[in-house]
Amino acid sequence: VVSSNDTSIILNVTDTLRNDIYNFPLTADIVVPDDWATVSVFQGSFYDYTASYFSGSSNIIQTSIVPDNGQLILYKGLVSGIKPIARGPETFRLYQNYPNPFNPETIISFSLPEASNTSLIIFNSLGEEVAALVSGYLSGGIHKINFHPGNLASGIYYYRLISGDYSMVKKMLLLK
To answer: Which of these ranges, 39-43, 106-110, 144-148, has the smallest mean pLDDT?
Structure first.
């Protein structure tokens, strides 16, 4: 942390990996003050805004960061007059499950830009469907789904979110 006050936090984001191989956006969970319900995020030319959520006793945001791409600046609330840089459907997101690895359960969060038919399906490493967590019409906004693996074996699983014209897949690890 470089500096922080009631309305902003500035973080240095660096790593020791080779930039030609590893300088890609990463998803990061960042703890913010409890009264920060919405957060504006800046890094280089990247701008995003996101809603925070409580995980345990911490208020957290989940955002993309690029190692070695300059400071990450967080502001409480929305910064007016600035539009997000187009990165595809800005509010369609599938977040990394938490915790990961997990046992006995995990939370899968996602955001939808508008109401639409949506499916969230879990697949094993062979591509076989093992669970359908969502199948139907959902409103736009942020959604959180608890996944209880039941009698599934330890291993790598994939979860795929499809909503309207958008689709995204993430990987998770079950340890028993």
So the answer is: 39-43
Q: What are phi and psi of 152, to 5 degrees?
A: -65, 145
The Cα 77–Cα 155 span in angstroms is: 39
Computed over every residue of the chain, the mean pLDDT equals: 82
Bridge-based pairing state of the strands 58-65 and 129-138 = unpaired
Contacts of 97 (CB under 8 A, 6+ apart): 106, 107, 108, 109, 147, 159, 170, 172
Residue 76 to residue 32: CA distance in whole angstroms? 9
8 Å CB contact between 50 and 38: yes
How would you label 146-156 residue by residue, b for 16+ Cβ within 10 Å and e otherwise?
ebebeeeeeee
Taking alpha carbons only, the member of 88, 64, 72, 57 closest to residue 12 is 72
pLDDT digits (tens, 9 = 90+) for 36-70: 988 888 877 677 778 888 888 888 888 877 776 67
From the CB of residue 176, how many other CB atoms can be counted at a distance below 10 Å? 11
Helix (H, G, I), strand (E, B) or coil at 22: helix
Q: Are 43 and 85 in contact (CB under 8 A)?
A: no
Partner residues linked to 73 by β-bridges: 10, 42
